[in-house]
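Supplementary Methods, section 5.1.

A reviewer requested that the exact input to the structure prediction be made available. We therefore reproduce it here, unchanged from the version used in the analyses.
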Amino acid sequence: MSCWKSVFVSPPHAVRRIRQMHERTMRAVARGLFVACCAVPTCVTMLIILVMWSPWYHRRCIRATEATLALQTGLDVRIGSLERVSPTTWQLGDVQLRDNETKQSIGRIRIVSWVQEDDRTIVRLSQPEIRAEYLDDVWQLVHDRFLCRPEHTLHPIRLAADDLTIQSAHSQITVRDLDGRILPGEKEVSAVLYCMLAGERPDIEPMEIEIKRRRDEGQPRTSVALRTGELNAPLAWLAGYHPAFEKLGDEATFHGAAKLSQVPSQAGAGAAGLVWMLDLSSARIENIDMARMTEFLPHRLVGKGSLQLNRCQIVPGGVVDVDGVVQITRGWISASLLPRLAEDLGCQLSTAVPDDFPFDLIAIDFDLYDGKLAMEGLCNSQRGFEKMPPGTMLCAGGQPIVRTGPQQIAATQLMRLFAAPHSVSVPVSGQTLEMLWLLQPPRGPLTLNDSIGSVPGTPRVDESGLPVGQDAPRVSGRISGFQSAPAPNDVPSQPRGYW
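The structure derived from this sequence is encoded token-by-token as follows.
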């Protein structure tokens, strides 16, 4: 009441008092609005943090990442944990890679660290594991879905891996200190990897793998080059990838260079008319287990062998140009192999040996080109065997046993050397090649129960349904080693039939 009284009593003071009350009110409203404006984003931020920390949101992020990686790789990807360490760094834990159709395990990675900066990407793999039988899938992932897609290689990529393990059913190999770079160019992209094998000295030259994808020609082409440096790379771990490596034995090693490159196909087959050419020139394979190599062959050979390839270029269905030296020291050989060497390869036997025997050395220089094979014995060029006659390819007890002939032979004769006794010679040419799928040679020796024109044991009848006398089953006399079966006792002898 006193306040209003002062207003009516003293107008100047009343105006000043009203102005002060208005200012206090406006300041209070402003403070309230400021507090409200500050509280709203704080609440929203807290709500976002709570949601992002929830297990539901974390699982959703993992599922989204798995779907993205599966779309890019073509594999079934499973991630155990996902963490964003910094605004540019992601870390994935317990990453499992499986075949998208069969769900078989291809490999797993303990930790994947992914750093994405302005103009480069850094990927670090901790303890990755790969199964050897799925190396084709890994290659398709690296080559088809990555190097062949320019949008994935716009910026340089650094790749590092600790303790990479390649496992197979027979053995495994561990690669350490893998360091690689993927460098994009205007017309090509290249990937260079350096690595060491576990257990090797750290001061020796590492193994180098270089992959190039060129796009400066009408058909983009890929080349892969391997250089072992000072290392002897074991081959047993590749047995799970292809059975041919299993036949080399558990101690076989590879040293030198190997190159795979895409070249135009003469037949125009393959992807865009390209096929892979294998070049193993100057490569060396040592500690070959000859007992394993000849395990299922009719003639056995026991010992440790080596293969030095001076020149080796192979195109499937095309060029085969191989020149090298085979050497086997101190082993056992089947005596049945000697007459086959003379008959099939044109070798000269110095003496006849009735039983299996131990030998001192086998040394052969061979040249295979254009379907022709030339061989020369090299025992006399090896240390300690200088007194052997020129051309000696096999010696035992200080004496020459087999010498090579001067003539060239057809490369197919080498197949006859190791063929089973019941094998059949097949006339293969450009005109008959397409018939092999239909007219295949028999898998085993023909027997007396084999007949022509009817099922063995089934009686034949005439048009009236009455049984008729059966003739002797006929076997081609043109097949070496088989004779026509004798006629039954109650049937007159018939001339030998051919078909």
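Residues 435-499 form one domain. These observations are discussed further in the main text.
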